[in-house]
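Need tokens for this chain, all 442 residues.
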Amino acid sequence: MNMKDENNTTVKMNTPIGEISLDMLEYHEANKLAKNHVSPQEFSIARKTVREFLGTEDKVDFRYWESKLGSLIKMHMDDHFANATLLEEFEFDGALQTDAIYSSIFLGEKGYARFMASGWRFYVRTTESGEEKFAVNSSVDSDGDQRLTVITSTEGRGLEIIEELMDSFYESGPLNGGFFDLQYNFLKRHQKTNELMAWNPHIKKALERDVLNFIKVMPILKENGLPNSRGIILSGPPGTGKTMIAKSMASETEATTILISAEMIQQRNDIKSAFRLARKLAPTLIIIEDIDTAGTVSRRFADHPILGEYLQAMDGIEANEGVVVLATTNHTENIDPAISDRPGRFDRIIEVPLPDAEQRINILENLLAKMPTENLTFGLGTKDFLGNETISEIGRDAEHLSGAWIREIVHTAFIFATYDGRNAISAKDLRAALKDVKERRG
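Here are the structure tokens for all 442 residues:
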């Protein structure tokens, strides 16, 4: 027996009746054909239908994603394949064809959007190489993951189609320009946030420069070879409005905004994944609530794996081009120098102090303007009736109280009013509420 070369599939054998040549490739194909004649291969109803549509053998590729991300990708499929012709859409119930099963997902200000959660689609489209047919199957795995299967007549073509869908998803899908958290829950950009805040002018100016304006000039920085990423920490006592300040930035920019908080971090790679996503959707603002909790960044926990992931994500091998990180912390003293002392991680720490008298008065005015009050005027207040004089009095007397505690004064005042059988806050209620809050704080 001998073979001429490695690519030759012909085998020659010397036998008592002479030399015999056998092409092993032809033998293999003939053997497979004979087996199919003797025991024909049974395909499922779905596969038979797909093969009839393609008019040839089927080649299968698939990808799956966790539930919410997969739902968003499936929803974007409608836009991505808008230029293809949808010939059929259906689902199988046993051997019967029925309607595809749809579900919906919340997209924040855009409301709810529907997507095909389970079903089949047959598409045909024109490409540079001619007409292309492909089938898409949407399904949900037993563990809740969303799966897309693309079936074509060419090996590997389905995977290419899925990659095209993913590129389009990150370029123009619902996440791009959206405001959502680490678990893909969409949030509303509250346009009235500023009305509830008593802005410290120095903080407002710093954030307008280092966040809002920085995002606008990112393309110019990149064109000139300058870093176009930045990290900022808002630091101050609890209740001073750091999170509200951070979220106000989300309401004033159209950039993609991702919110991260401690309870959202479920596994080690979550932070790395968030930064990877931010780079794909850039320009992106990442808001990290209470980084001293989420990242355990105190010196005594400096070797914490989550902290290591923050550091690696912020100045790792892949630059965070087009990404601004805005983090909050209640404890400046807990910020590890490994985070704060290196440009490219956090370039600036902005102190957010307790509100001064003027800010406290402004907070009270903003809150009371949205609450039922007795005789609220912008004149002099009296012992019983609420006016500017009373608001100023309460604001001055609320020294050392945070914005959160000032909100508690207003809420407590309303509770006192309703307990007394009234549906509006009076000056008496506010004074009693201030006293109650001070006693509770000790």
